[in-house]
Write a structure and sequence with these properties.
Blueprint: E1 4-8, H1 12-23, E2 27-31, H2 35-43, E3 61-63, H3 66-70, E4 75-78, H4 82-99, E5 104-107, H5 120-127, E6 136-140, H6 145-149, E7 154-159, H7 163-173, E8 178-183, H8 186-209, H9 213-233, H10 244-255, H11 260-269, H12 274-280, H13 286-301, H14 306-316, H15 321-329
Parallel strand pairs: 1-2, 1-4, 2-3, 4-5, 5-6, 7-8
Antiparallel strand pairs: 6-7
């Protein structure tokens, strides 16, 4: 069934998801804040800042007019950075009220809001009244936009407390190279999606420091333990973290040069100033702000998260990264589980 879908955010991930939806036969409006970017997508069918040398479908329509993008939308997919979610969602709510529309809301963003420590779906629930949307679905998993653009086999998860809503998102995205599973553990999927970026910063830093695979595997494994520990405390199913949005997303983000969180960590490990690395990355490094939120949330919930704490010390307390890495190894001996 053909759906009218608004994709909000024309970065690499949002634009490639819009492309997948168009290829699947849906009517898609891709919203961007930038008129010149919308013109490039409409006229040249490219988005060179985010995905070089990829040709978008000619029938993908981009717009810088949010109201136009939302007109008659049956599904709205948010794919903007976490700090922008609340602002964009508030604008969306006003427009939906004017249009008297009640779409299904989905998001493909990964992070925790600063200060509030809220997950993306929680922000959306606050900004968009229940009367204006059918349900909220999180779309997450190991998925680099560059590889989806090549139509490499990609598997992700659609999570919602409303299983029918998750199944609908599954249906609109599924094709021969993009496979979607459903999950009702929205908390676990969103926590895994957010915190894997923090661990990827740490793994990248180890690479920059010159450490090998033993150290990286150790940090990934113990990082997953920390993610699971916090997630379970917040109400998640521990099995979620063994799935696509847990260990799957952690692996791809911690081992690929496509990962800007890994690249940022690598540069910091090589001795560059964290503030300079973040400023020069060209795209949002979600793990940096998520690290602060995760650190504060762990303190609030009294959850032990030494890797998150170590990463926070480097990013926010200007701690010496060599000493931080050494201190992690010298912690008191403990049982693994």
């Amino acid at each position: 069934m053909k759906n009218k879908i608004a994709v909000l955010g024309a970065g690499s991930w949002g634009s490639i998801l819009a492309s997948v939806l168009v290829q699947n036969g849906h009517d898609v409006s891709l919203w961007t804040r930038h008129t010149d970017q919308a013109n490039e997508i409409n006229q040249k069918h490219t988005n060179q800042r985010y995905l070089k040398n990829y040709q978008y479908p000619s029938n993908l329509k981009a717009t810088a007019d949010l109201k136009q993008a939302l007109t008659a939308a049956q599904i709205i997919l948010f794919s903007v950075p976490t700090p922008a979610i609340r602002d964009v969602a508030t604008q969306v709510a006003k427009i939906l009220q004017e249009q008297n529309n009640q779409p299904l809301i989905a998001h493909a963003s990964k992070g925790l809001e600063q200060n509030t420590h809220l997950r993306i779906s929680q922000i959306l629930e606050i900004a968009i009244p229940q009367s204006q949307c059918q349900a909220i679905v999180a779309l997450s998993g190991p998925s680099h936009a560059e590889e989806v653009a090549r139509q490499d086999p990609t598997l992700i998860t659609a999570a919602s407390t409303d299983l029918d809503a998750a199944k609908r998102i599954q249906d609109v995205f599924m094709n021969n190279y993009f496979r979607v599973y459903t999950n009702t553990d929205l908390i676990g999927v969103e926590i895994g999606a957010a915190l894997k970026n923090v661990i990827a910063l740490g793994v990248g830093a180890l690479h920059g420091l010159g450490y090998g695979d033993n150290a990286k595997a150790a940090l990934m494994t113990r990082g997953l333990a920390e993610i699971s520990r916090l997630g379970v405390a917040l109400g998640a199913n521990p099995l979620t973290f063994t799935g696509l949005s847990g260990v799957g997303d952690l692996i791809v983000t911690c081992t690929s040069v496509h990962s800007r969180n890994w690249r940022a960590g690598d540069q910091i490990g090589r001795g560059q100033n964290p503030a300079d690395v973040i400023a020069n990355m060209g795209m949002v490094v979600e793990g940096v702000k998520t690290c602060q939120s995760a650190y504060e949330l762990a303190q609030q919930e009294n959850i032990e998260m030494p890797i998150v704490e170590a990463t926070y010390d480097v990013l926010y307390n200007h701690a010496n990264i060599d000493k931080v890495a050494a201190d992690l190894m010298q912690r008191e001996g403990k049982a693994e589980l």
